[in-house]
């Protein structure tokens, strides 16, 4: 019987504890601060670049300004999403499962296997960094 080994994604779920909530909130605060630093750096660079461009070519300066403003709005939207996640993180219910990403693994498929069953539905449940359950239907 022919078999093939393929990659599959496995969902990682974390059981919410006080420790996890604190770690998640710290991670999100750092991400918000890093995004704000990118915005500040971009504003500083844009002032210099735009001042130079305005002396040379006003049309090019206007185009560059629009690009900088568009990128600034994008970064501000990212920061706002992070802050909303931070607010949500503080309200997570202890003991609930929180999606924390995915990992990949290999699975062997053989003739007659249910493809969906083999490729989907597997989950790793983690509590305070320790795997407490592997769900594999």
In short:
It contains three helices and four strands.
Characterise this structure:
The chain has 137 residues and is α+β, with helices and mostly antiparallel strands. The chain folds into two domains: 1-16 and 94-137, no CATH class; 18-92. It is 56% helix and 28% strand. The protein has helices at 18-56, 58-90, 115-119, and strands at residues 3-15, 97-110, 123-127, 130-135. The chain has a four-stranded mixed beta sheet. Helix 1 packs antiparallel against helix 2. The relative contact order is 0.26. The model has no long low-confidence stretch (mean pLDDT 92).
Lateral arrangement of strands in the main beta sheet: 2-1-3-4
Helix percent reads 55-70%
Number of helices: 3
Low-confidence stretches: none
Total discrete domains:
2
Instruction: For the record, give the distance between the C-alpha atoms at the N and C termini, rounded to a whole number.
Output: 23 Å
Integer-rounded radius of gyration: 23 Å
Counting helices, strands and paired strands, the structural category is: alpha+beta
Q: What is the succession of H and E elements? A: EHHEHEE
Q: Summarize the main sheet.
A: 4 strands, mixed
The pLDDT mean sits at: 92
Total E-strand runs: 4
Shape summary: elongated
Strand content: 25-35%
